[in-house]
Automatic annotation (TrEMBL):
Protein name listed in UniProt: Aspartate-semialdehyde dehydrogenase
Homology family: Belongs to the aspartate-semialdehyde dehydrogenase family.
This enzyme's EC code(s): 1.2.1.11
Lineage of source species: Bacteria, Bacillati, Bacillota, Bacilli, Bacillales
The species this protein was found in: Paenibacillus gyeongsangnamensis
Catalytic residues (UniProt): 132, 252
NCBIfam families xrefs: asd_B (TIGR01296), PRK14874.1 (NF011456)
Keyword annotations of the record: Amino-acid biosynthesis, Diaminopimelate biosynthesis, Lysine biosynthesis, Methionine biosynthesis, NADP, Oxidoreductase, Threonine biosynthesis
Highest taxon of the lineage: Bacteria
Amino acid sequence: MSNQKLFNIAVVGATGAVGEQIIRLLQERNFPIQELKLLSSARSAGSKLSFKGKDVVVQEATPDSFEGVDIALFSAGGDVSKALVPEAIKRGTVCIDNTSAFRMDPETPLVVPEVNIDKINENKGVIANPNCSTIQMVQTLKPLYDRYGISRIIVSTYQAVSGAGAKAIDEMLRQSKEILAGNEVEPQILPVGSLPVKHQIAFNAIPQIDKFVDNGFTYEEMKMINETKKIMGDETLEVTATCVRIPVVYGHSESVYVELKEDFDIEEVKQLLAGSPGIVLVDNPAEQQYPLASDAAGKLETFVGRVRRDLSNPRALNLWIVSDNLLKGAAWNAVQIAEYIAIEQH
């Protein structure tokens, strides 16, 4: 990005797990930054984070924080985004929002760069980053959608505790030690911090991510259903989801059943996936090679394997999809959007 315009960048939620990854990626990608503002809640303000060998003091995020800021990347929770994104837009800032605050707003583009990058230019000041589980699924299914059409998707997720924040990681590790020592545990965080009933996550699988809605699905499941239709630009898609939290630190895994509209050749499907940007095909059952969360952790790509024709429906496929939920599922997707904006304004 030599001879490129330099940008004033703000990271909101800089001290959080996603915020820290955004800062690391901006540094590693050598994003063209003139000034970097690191913003957080009053509680974290005053702390220091390193960027390119220099300490940057974290400031409290207020409406005036966005004066002179070109691009702001938000990952501080939906309430913060609802309060501050409109203030940032008023001051001429383009906002990339990692929360669910604007995802289903008809005026707001919901973007996965490998799927619908053209939508970025339709923004009215804010671009939404989809849910982590949605991102890796639509990124994988997009080449199949374009080639064969898709009528139906059934997804079951196996989601890492990092998706619920640092306290959830701590809880899982603490519980694991206690149980291995033969002690009782008292769950305090999962599945949902604000709900009265808590469940053990160590050595367990919890079929609840976020609160339940009236139809028996959770908000997380409804996000996957609604966001997939919006990103693909196809309201006729039939999508259903079951989202499960498992005791893994980083990396969401998904079992996906997808019904295509046309017949397909399984080798062509694999070649399509292997040739798609940001996707790595790991699919060699004879050698027991398939995507693992432990391999995907810390990587920017989405990994796909266990690709096979369904036995009961010849037009259906089964896939296994794995990606780092804090990277492609959040920080990397947001930084990709910022890079596109920077290139467009060059």
